[in-house]
Design goal:
Low-confidence stretches: 5-25
Largest sheet: 6 strands, mixed
Radius of gyration: 20 Å
Oligomer: single chain
Order of helices and strands: HHHHEHEHEEEEH
Number of strands: 6
Mean pLDDT: 88
Strand content: 35-45%
Helix content: 25-40%
Distance between the termini: 69 Å
Structural class: alpha+beta
Length: 188
């Protein structure tokens, strides 16, 4: 009986793998092998360090993890169109909004990395972020000091002389709540 159950499970797994190859790749990423283990860990470290640097307002560290130009897509949050911009412009935008008055907290998990034939890689992960600004708690500013968002990040990576760097970053919001004043108002 156990052998039959194992055979059914194996057959089902093979059938699903052949029926849904694109879904499996975006859901699972590339298999981790001895050859990709270090690269996999390094890309997660780079993306997580971007979040930690933003929260610490260490803009030089955050900037060092990007190539000079970056493809960005934050249209689910701010509208507009995806664009290619200087990484310095991305950091200027973040630092202009997340000043000392505004706290932020970013958390990422469920990293799935797909290695491409050209040597690049794409990482998809779930993300959560909140912003806190005490001024938002004032009645005239909405009465709530918090704004938070959930969604999916996509980072594209290229290998440079300095190691893996991000040359594309997108965020696809799935839910948000809180005070838009906190989200949209730069801290002082």
């Amino acid at each position: 009986m156990a052998r039959t159950f194992k055979t059914v499970l194996a057959s089902t797994a093979i059938a699903l793998a052949t029926i849904l190859p694109a879904t499996a790749e975006t859901t699972a990423g590339s298999p981790i092998t001895m050859e990709t283990l270090v690269d996999h860990a390094e890309m997660i470290r780079v993306a997580d360090t971007i979040d930690a640097a933003v929260d610490a307002k260490d803009w030089a560290l955050a900037r060092s993890l990007f190539t000079d130009e970056i493809r960005v897509d934050f249209t689910s949050l701010i509208g507009g169109e995806p664009a290619t911009i200087p990484a310095d412009g991305l950091i200027a935008g973040w630092s202009g909004n997340l000043t000392e008055e505004k706290e932020s907290f970013h958390l990422r998990g469920n990293h799935r990395i797909t290695f491409e034939a050209d040597g690049s890689a794409t990482m998809v992960s779930h993300g959560y972020a909140w912003n806190k600004m005490e001024r938002g708690a004032l009645a005239e500013n909405g009465g709530n000091a918090l704004w938070e968002v959930w969604g999916t990040y996509e980072h594209s990576f290229v290998q440079t002389e300095a190691g893996w760097r991000v040359d594309g970053m997108s965020f696809f919001a799935t839910a948000e709540r809180g005070n838009d004043f906190v989200r949209n108002t730069p801290g002082s």
